[in-house]
Design brief:
Elements lengths: L10 E5 L2 E18 L2 E3 L10 E8 L1 H7 L1 E8 L11 E9 L9 E7 L7 H10 L4 E5 L13 H11 L4 E5 L20 E3 L2 E3 L2 E5 L2 E6 L18 H17 L12 E6 L15 H14 L3 E4 L5 E4 L13 E4 L1 E5 L5 E11 L2 E7 L5 E2 L1
Parallel strand pairs: 1-9, 7-8, 8-9, 13-14, 14-15, 15-17
Antiparallel strand pairs: 1-2, 2-3, 2-4, 2-5, 5-6, 7-19, 10-11, 12-13, 16-17, 18-19, 19-20, 20-21
Length: about 375
């Protein structure tokens, strides 16, 4: 970044048919987005949010048509109760390239399990070449004990997209651990339902329709590792109800005009059976697998396992899912010279041919 109060380039997160543009600033103040002369803000109950994290909802139709947006930041050294004074410190315009609805050839890059690493994953992205969509699929941080840990996601997004292409975000189990975990919802895209900010939702980018799911933690709520600080059973039950609501609304979701690829994104490959104490959610995951089969998901993209492998559709030991699963992330792999590298994932669509592969490894799987 150049010498501005912006910590990183903005991240343009896709949620539903719209976007949530999130940017961080070095100092506190007010931020907003301008598109075609209109201002989009984070106003709630009549107040613009004062701070260093700026999360701005933007209509997808507006940004897709304009193909550019302007980030504005006004610094307030002190937000006094009377006559506070702000100074505009940032007014920067970004080009934006949504995935074209008519696209027949496109690429989706998958980051997961970076565990606070930035340089090696970004080096891999640069070696791979620019993509059309970036996925941040959980355990981007090692944990959430400090707010600064959340910056890993923005460093990866900034370094790969430069604020110019859409990002899909899925939370991982390590992201739920630590003092600051409850504040993560301020830094990531969320959907508001029933008075809560939720981390599961659908998205639409050109010919791609997607469903982001969140398994929460990978062990039972009562596991002593969590010290009584989590409650994921009711969370997963709400998620099940949400998937059912998506199916009920199929005509506006995955059966909408132009949908050619139906992608599910989840940090944990929940189609697998895990041994105790990791066998949490078995009945719910059986139901999720069946529901995603009813949707006709083309691919489940996952991480979590720190390995790279492909599970074909109909594999009995994996809940006989009607769709394949690709697990594509290894935090660290040693070369012969002792150095290490990161393994991510790449989905490539070229006409009727669709492949997914763990890069820079040589495997490639058609789906």
């Amino acid at each position: 970044m150049d010498n501005t109060p912006l910590s990183y380039h903005p991240s343009v997160f896709a949620v539903g048919a719209d976007y949530q543009i999130i940017f961080l600033t070095e100092t506190r103040g007010l931020g907003w987005i301008e598109i075609g002369g209109e201002r989009y803000t984070d106003e709630e109950a009549g107040l613009l949010y004062y701070g260093s994290v700026h999360k701005i909802p933007v209509p997808g139709e507006v940004l897709n048509r304009a193909r550019s947006y302007t980030v504005v930041f006004v610094e307030y050294a002190d937000k006094k109760p009377y006559y506070p004074e702000g100074v505009e410190k940032v007014r920067r315009t970004y080009d934006f390239r949504p995935l074209d609805p008519a696209a027949e050839n496109y690429r989706i890059f998958h980051f997961a399990d970076t565990h606070a690493r930035v340089e090696a994953p970004l080096a891999l992205y640069r070696e791979t070449g620019d993509c059309d969509l970036v996925v941040l699929n959980g355990d981007i941080n090692e944990h959430s004990y400090e707010l600064k840990n959340f910056e890993t996601a923005f460093a990866l997004s900034s370094g790969s997209t430069k604020g110019e292409i859409p990002v899909i975000y899925s939370r991982g189990n390590h992201d739920t651990r630590g003092y600051a975990a409850q504040d993560l919802v301020n830094y990531i895209p969320t959907a508001f339902r029933g008075g809560r900010r939720e981390t599961f939702y659908t998205f639409r980018q050109g010919p791609v329709w997607g469903l982001v799911l969140d398994c929460g933690e990978d062990k039972y709520d009562y596991n002593p590792e969590y010290g009584g600080t989590i409650l994921f059973d009711p969370f997963r039950a709400r998620e099940t109800a949400y998937i059912r609501s998506v199916i009920a609304d199929r005509k506006r979701e995955y059966e909408a005009d132009g949908v050619k690829l139906k992608l599910a994104v989840c940090h944990v490959p929940f189609v697998e059976h895990f041994s105790h104490p990791f066998d949490v959610g078995n009945e719910i995951y059986e139901e999720w697998t069946a529901l995603l089969g009813e949707i006709g998901i083309d691919l489940l993209l996952a991480g979590h396992m720190h390995r790279a492998y492909f599970i074909p559709a109909g594999t009995g030991k994996c809940r006989s899912a009607a769709f394949p699963t690709a697990v594509c992330s290894i935090p660290s792999v040693k070369r012969e010279d002792g150095s290490d590298f990161y393994v991510g994932g790449l989905i490539e669509v070229k006409g009727d041919r669709r492949t997914v592969r763990p890069i820079p490894l040589q495997e490639e799987w058609e789906f």
